[in-house]
Prior knowledge:
- The chain folds into two domains: 4-31 and 282-410, Lyase, Ornithine Decarboxylase, Chain A, domain 1, CATH 2.40.37; 34-281, Alpha-Beta Barrel (TIM Barrel).
- The chain is built from twelve helices and 21 strands.
- The termini are far apart.
- By secondary structure, it is α/β, with parallel strands linked by helices.
- Bound molecules: ligand LLP.
- The site of ligand LLP has 20 residues, from α10 and α11.
Amino acid sequence: MHHFNRREDRLFAENVDVTALAEHIGTPFYCYSTATLRQHYTRLKDAFAQNEVTICYSVKANSNLGVIATLADLGSGADVVSEGELRRALLSGIPAGKIVFSGVGKTEAEMTYALNADIAQFNVESRAELEQLSEVATKQGKTARISLRVNPDIDAGTHEKISTGKAENKFGIAWDEAEASYAKAATLPGLEIVGIDIHIGSQITELTPFRNAFTKVADLLEKLTDAGHNITTLDLGGGLGIPYGPEDAPPPSPEDYANLIDEIFGDSGCRIFLEPGRLIAGNAGILVTSVIRTKKGEAKNFIIVDAAMTELMRPTLYGAYHDIQPVITNGNVQDVWDVVGPVCETGDFLGSERSLPEPQKGDLLAIFTCGAYSASLGSSYNTRLSAPEVLVDNEKFEIIRARPQYDDILALEKVPDWLKKA
Ligand code: LLP
């Protein structure tokens, strides 16, 4: 569900006319809907009414301060994977006590920063990381609350590049080493074991992989409790998928997901953390782009637009499908088009073989489901200016990230002194 709707032939974001936005801001730009963000957060939270659950929005999905602050306002916590994301979460008003720090490569500087911020917990992904965190915490005279991210060796049934819970993935502590790693952690100074953490992948569209992984975690919880560890939190990661195409089967509902968690962990007495990203932000954003020109080729017809893989990497990276629609429907006959950007890579496409009415130069297209992993995966390849981000709330809107100027992106670079002409 989202709040991008058509009024007669025109696309609106809540009560804001997308065409008027484009005239004001220029294209390409991302447009996010506050009502959609709120609805997704609230529906998930409400699905867990019976449980003590903390939703730690996974900041990597969409890390704009305006988006994080919208969720902070609803009481969300955050899942972060770098000092940069931690800074964003804190700046957006998320209390440190609701922030979990995941990731395989936390540096000593990042550990120090997070310890000083007094975050809820570190999700530790290896024994070497345990030892380093212990050293850093001891040096700071602090105690790091930790969960161990365990790798349950479960196939999440998703794209191989976003599957994280198989033994061959780089994430988490190998299942067979989990108990020994907890025993080791208990001997290290500066650490307080609080929980267990898993995250098996992203865009998971069936409950079975979650069931398999959670069942293994429940078993581990029992073993660790028997071994005398005081496990009080379970971080079950993110990963619940969303529909991208009109023909996609509906993924499990937040209620089904919540019921599964209640069935497996309802009596555990543990505080549950969740780390959803896409589920909250994915459908809350569109990417609006203008047609530069069309090109009818021998084998294919192309609509060349001013957005590219630099704004939406997902089709290139994962072969992902995103729905594309004209912002204003015209009555032109439909043809089959590849929608491509100006970037000099054959892989730079936004949609292939789409039935769309023949557009004119300057017509606007909306690419749907660009609220997650779109702006945050963006780049300035081909020295392109990153697309601005706009947040709509009912009839209000605000630019929450401006389009940079060329001077801004060139300012950090220089020609070395030895090449400068006297
Ligand atoms: N927690 C951890 C530790 C994660 O690594 C991730 C995502 C999440 C939570 C949030 O997962 P979600 O609820 O959003 O599925 N760029 C890819 C997705 C990469 C996901 C990386 N980790 C894409 O565009 O599909």
